Amino acid sequence: MFIIKYLKSIAYILGSILLFSILIGTFSYFNLLSNNVIKVFELIAIIISMFIGGLYLGRLSNKKGFLEGIKIGIVVIVILFLLSYLGFDMSFSLNTFIFYLLILISSILGSIIGINKKSSN
What is the mean pLDDT of the chain? Predict the structure, then answer.
């Protein structure tokens, strides 16, 4: 049962990333925004997606929302790490470390807020 809630949370993350990608791709296709603004929107989209996934996972959890956020954040970071470094042969830098740290923090905050919203209802 506990694997199902993680898979559903990852599905929420991937679904929201897909929706944001369609929106950002549309802006890029019609040249409505510059490349720098689009890169910022891509970062914001991933942070919001991780927050949504953490929020969903926090609502399903019973206690210690920050640990659930750490778990889902690490799972997504490992997936991204494997895709970017093994698949695309990218090097590790301070920017990627900060990016992964932002992903982890947003999933932790989402799960903390999710578990608090659950207990207040």
Answer: 88
